[in-house]
Specification:
Layout lengths: L1 H28 L3 H23 L2 H18 L10 H19 L21 H7 L8 H20 L2 H12 L4 H8 L3 H20 L8
């Protein structure tokens, strides 16, 4: 009974959020610049963090973010809050544009040699904290050092994954997306998403183990 009540409450909260997002998109569709500015400031940094591990270039990230924003400005009316969260719709646009850019620029794909000293680290804050917060103890400088080292190793390991594997891990653990939401964003069946997450986690664990880092047990 308690579980049913929690599910009902979560559904109501999500429905209200989707309704608010729907109203925001309606305003943008009507070319309300204040609404678009609100959307931009809310989503541009989030999209950028989602893209940087794949594109490895701030200029390319900015290019894709601008393309996503242009698409939202031009096609805001196509967002349907009854079909899912605004974040899933937006990240789906970003994912598709990133994939097309990678196809045009093969040299930016993840099979290139990675220079660990050149890893993009401009936003090693809130989102990265999600990945290694359990390793950090603000009252213990040694654990802080270990946490940061592990965070950097994790960043490098993520860049060594394929685009598909890295994407599902970022959506799962940073964006906190469900399998269904990831399927919507990537355009893949849910079972494919589950398979990718399984293999991506195993590959990531293997890469970290090569560096003497063992997580989750």
């Amino acid at each position: 009974m308690i579980r049913d009540n929690e599910q009902a409450q979560n559904f109501r909260v999500q429905h209200e959020m989707n309704s608010d997002d729907g109203l925001l998109m309606q305003r943008i569709a009507a070319k309300d610049r204040a609404a678009f500015t609100q959307f931009y400031h809310g989503y541009a940094p989030r999209i950028g963090k989602f893209l940087i591990a794949s594109l490895k270039s701030k200029d390319l990230v900015d290019e894709v973010v601008n393309e996503v924003m242009l698409t939202v400005w031009q096609k805001a009316e196509s967002y349907d809050p009854n079909q899912g969260k605004l974040s899933s719709w937006v990240l789906g646009i970003a994912h598709n544009k990133c994939l097309k850019l990678l196809e045009r620029n093969r040299r930016y794909q993840t099979d290139e040699t990675i220079d660990e000293l050149a890893v993009y680290d401009a936003d090693l804050d809130a989102d990265d904290a999600v990945l290694h917060a359990v390793l950090v103890d603000n009252n213990n400088p040694e654990r802080i050092h270990i946490g940061k080292q592990t965070g950097m190793a994790l960043t490098v390991a993520l860049q060594q994954l394929s685009f598909e594997h890295r994407t599902v891990l970022e959506l799962t653990f940073i964006e906190q997306c469900s399998y269904q939401e990831i399927a919507t964003i990537t355009g893949c069946p849910v079972n494919t998403v589950k398979t990718r997450v399984f293999h991506a986690r195993k590959k990531l664990a293997d890469l970290l183990a090569e560096r003497g880092i063992y997580l989750g047990g």
